[in-house]
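Issue 218. Parser rejects a valid record. Input:
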Amino acid sequence: MKSAVETLNPTRVRLTVEVPFEELKDSLDAAYKKINQQVTVKGFRKGKVPARVIDQRFGRGAVLEEAVNDALPKFYTDAVNEAELSPLGQPEVDITELKDGETLNFTAEVDIRPAIEIPDYSGIEVEVDAVEVTEEDVDKAVEELRERFASTAPVERAAEDGDVVTIDLEAKVEGEVLEDGVANGVSYTIGSGELLDGIDDAVKGLEAGGEATFTSELKGGSAAGKEAEVTVKVTQVAKRELPELDDEFAQLASEFDTIEELRADSRKRLENMKQYDQATQAQERVLEKLLELVEVPVPRSCSRTRSTRASTTSSTTSSARWASTSRSTWRSRARARRSSRPRPARPRSRASRPSSSSTSSSSRRSSTSTRRSSPSTSCGVPPPPACPPTSSPRP
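Output the parser choked on:
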């Protein structure tokens, strides 16, 4: 296989590929095998029809089309790798010449990742937030740790903010109790906002055995979004008890023996976090400054899709992975373009003869004008060598 690259503009190239016919042998064998499994010829067992009989009965053109559709993704991928290109999206492929027993020639136009010249950035200066950990920051971190080790103890009094109540719930919509609107033994911390709107006001002031009704919009279930009449019954009120901030707590909550060591470790962790945040902030601000100095060419496929895509994802996928998933797209687009020229022979019950093996220039022009309307994939940094062909072989 021979290939050449022509640069059309900074973001688009045209690959010209010449494939000796002998390199199609494996694909031709696979095509005969596939057609063999699909057709029935009197006098031969299924799958045992000789190649010459398939050519006579169903046309050599059908075999060539199947073989080329199978082989083109590999040839395209090999050409991309040989030229060390970074394709963006799907190429536009045109088979320029297919001579049975001689050669297969095709072109593929594709957007590529543009080469960007990075200017001198040694003079870029940015300001970032200082790394500063205050005593308040340490207190907050230790308090959060303390909250995680809180315990509860039942109390005989009315529920207050911060208490943990055990409740039973029943929701009605239009006077009917919902099938999924009953829940018993639910644990809820007053003020956490984890349940329905209005439940805090309903349960505050209730003791164990107390009951209240309120109206709220349901957040989930069969009647999500509807207003419901909710009855809540408090079965237990418990007070949250935080552990004392002492050496015993330090030993319970960490690997340290004293509360001073625990606080020192919390400070160090906070400093590391803020240093990381500072480095990230510096990177982002330098990048913003650098982008102001660089002119980045926008590939055509990007400009077509930018209005419909909020963001793009940078990814690199192997050619082999692509090849296994793109053939169905390839085939569907190839068939759509065959309407502008005589169709090659397809498997059918009556015999037919293969057609001429050369391709006319008028047919190529028709195919080329059609392929320009093919949809483009989203932009960004690729799915890589993707290759749904835009014209089929012309046997």
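Fixed in the parser; the record now loads. The chain has ten helices and nine strands.
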